[in-house]
Amino acid sequence: MTINPAKLMDGQALARRVLEGAKAKVEKIRAASGMTPTLATVLVGDDRASATYVRMKRKRCEDVGMRSVAIELPADTTTERLVAQIRELAADPAVHGILVQHPVPAPIDKRAVFETIPAEKDVDGVTSTTLGRIILGMPAFGSCTPKGIMRLLQEYHVVLDGAYAVVIGRSPILGRPMASMLINAHATVTLCHSRTRSLPSLVRGADIVIAAVGHPRFVQGGWIKVGAVVIDAGYNEGNVGDVDFAGAYEPASLITPVPGGVGPMTIAMLIDQTADAAGLQLGVALP
Ligand SMILES: NC(=O)c1ccc[n+]([C@@H]2O[C@H](COP(=O)([O-])OP(=O)(O)OC[C@H]3O[C@@H](n4cnc5c(N)ncnc54)[C@H](OP(=O)(O)O)[C@@H]3O)[C@@H](O)[C@H]2O)c1
């Protein structure tokens, strides 16, 4: 397969630019307030992939001059203990954003934990308040993956107004906010999930396909309409997405690679939203 770079949506390059913008925001905040924007990361248990994600996020903080505070708790942490920890971070004026790395170990009531994060520090977009605001099209620090996808679509001048989009996956951090953001941009959206009937035929009609399923190479090339824009939010073991890239590449007009598509944008949005949260909390106007 010969790859035409013009077809690839380069999340790596766009993420670099978003991070440069975040760095400028951090410098402005420090100059105006003397405070350093700070992200608190909370990691529960010893899942290696989660630990790697947290390390990557903290490294990006460092890259843009932001401070990060790492809270690490054992796998047997109770919901009460975790909620108390989040309350502490919520009350700390030196912490501007809170990220609870998910998944958290199963016995923990993750909804109770997420709901403890105040909306102004919810830079990962996990609370019901944030999701409600996103659905209503109100300002909010939205969930980072769909926000990153919206930035990619904008960067590549994908027309959303009147387009037909199929989103596969209805999780509260990905599929649901994604569908709402697309609807707010005037797309017509079908939100699919594991009980959806005739998924391939729905996808065949789509101008924009967003795969957020969690199954490697789930979306087949034969499902993709010629000229469709294909966004693969999936990230499975071995750097494999939720779309069969080799099959979808030919019919697609634009497609995100895995890795280097949606993934880098997710982290960039987290960092950018933390800078914005710090600006709002410290009363520093940002571009
Ligand atoms: N790039 C990033 O930074 C980033 C961030 C987060 C997630 N991800 C990736 O994105 C993907 C989705 O993540 P998530 O957290 O949203 O996963 P999730 O919570 O497991 O949700 C998966 C969704 O896919 C649906 N689904 C499962 N099997 C299906 C099938 N056979 N047909 C149609 N729909 C099906 C599920 O439907 P039901 O609701 O009916 O169960 C569910 O709504 C994963 O690959 C994950 O690794 C990437």
Structure characterization notes:
This protein is an alpha/beta fold and 287 residues long. It is built from 10 helices and 8 strands. It has helices at 11-33, 48-63, 79-91, 110-115, 128-135, 144-155, 175-184, 199-204, 245-249, 262-282; strands at residues 38-44, 67-73, 97-100, 164-168, 188-192, 208-211, 229-232, 254-255. The longest helix is centred in the N-terminal third of the chain and has 23 residues, at 11-33. It is globular and about 50 Å long. The termini are far apart. The mean pLDDT is 97. Bound molecules: NADP nicotinamide-adenine-dinucleotide phosphate. Residues 145, 168-171, 173-175, 192-196, 199, 212-215, 233-236, 242, 262-263, 266 line the site of NADP nicotinamide-adenine-dinucleotide phosphate.
Spatial order of strands in the largest sheet: 5-4-6-7-8
**Count of beta strands:** 8
Distance between the termini: 42 Å
- This entry's quaternary arrangement is single chain
The radius of gyration over CA amounts to 19 Å
Q: Roughly how much helix do the residues carry, as a percent range? A: 40-55%
Low-confidence stretches: none
Query: Could you say what the CATH architecture of the largest domain is?
Result: 3-Layer(aba) Sandwich
Rough outline: globular
- Can you tell me the number of structural domains? 2
Strand percent estimate: 5-15%
Which secondary structure elements does this structure contain, and how are they paired or packed?
Layout: H1 11-33, E1 38-44, H2 48-63, E2 67-73, H3 79-91, E3 97-100, H4 110-115, H5 128-135, H6 144-155, E4 164-168, H7 175-184, E5 188-192, H8 199-204, E6 208-211, E7 229-232, H9 245-249, E8 254-255, H10 262-282
Parallel strand pairs: 1-2, 1-3, 4-5, 4-6, 6-7, 7-8
Helix pairs in contact: 1-10, 2-10, 6-7, 6-10
The structure holds NADP nicotinamide-adenine-dinucleotide phosphate (NAP).
Residues 145, 168-171, 173-175, 192-196, 199, 212-215, 233-236, 242, 262-263, 266 line the site of NADP nicotinamide-adenine-dinucleotide phosphate.
